[in-house]
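Just scan my protein:

——
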Amino acid sequence: MRDRAGLTATEGARLLGISQAQLSNIGASRFGVSPERLRAMARNYRCSDIAYIQGLLDLAGERAPGRWETFREVLAAPLLDIAELEHHATGLQSANTSHIPGLLQTTDHAREIFRQVVPEFSRSDIEHRVSHRLQRQAILDRTASPPYQAVIHEAALRVPVGGTTVAKAQLRHLLEQSEREHITIQVIPFAIGAYPGSGQTILYVHGSAPRLDTVSLDQSHGPALVDAEAELEAYRLLLARMEAVALTPNSLPGGSVPGAGSPSPGGKGYRWNRAFLLLTAMRHSLAAPPEPFGTVPCSSDQRIFTTQGTRPRIELASVREQMSTSPPSGPGSKD
């Protein structure tokens, strides 16, 4: 608000009757801010965006000071900030090329990811980060969960993070999550080739007002948060283009790889994303590789994992049989 009002930090602090150091600490999230002070800021900084002001008041009023306090000594501040923003989000979008999105990772998958960080984390640091990640995922289990749309490249599905058992459990988890009403998972196959945003890891958090939107970019030194409107618009466009080239829950079977919005001849809508996950799961548990992606449809109620003795496996013959005989899913159904 102060920047948009064209005020310096000194001028802004004077209008609020506080020191410049106090204002700086509030801006850096080192100090909390009360709803009363937020209203004073809006009044003195001549902010007339009611939705934005109300969104800030909701954040200040509902913020639980101890929610992430146990992680403050071991995690970077941007990680705590993005977790708080997710908690208040009205919608979430992500795009990942080489990793499964953090909000969709299993415990063992996340633990293995943190084990690979250089310089190495201590065992306690790893467990703190795993715990933080799992607590972030709780937003997807709330009664009124925000809609979440995740775009994942095929490369991330094929990397056996933590070994076969962990990788297979992770794929099973993705399949289960993809069935939830508020979660949409799209896959970008290798066959697409180059595409906008390749190589980037993006999390877009939609706030209760557009000015509260924030993008988190995953980098080797930690997340970078972006909230400038010009940059947000660029990332909205980038995510839209990535979603457009990804397979959709009702993309067409038959050798080609259409983008989003491709019509289905005769109303047939096969679950391509689920087929991708299914066939990748096969690759993790069978010696013989499955058919190439882009050729096999799959019904939504497919039983994927069975057990034989103590070794989990996939009934390849029955899967192929059901794929060839099952009627396609309805065009309006959600994967």
Observations:
- The chain is about 40% helix and 10% strand.
- The beta strands are 91-96, 148-153, 183-188, 202-206, 214-217, 224-226, 305-308, 311-314.
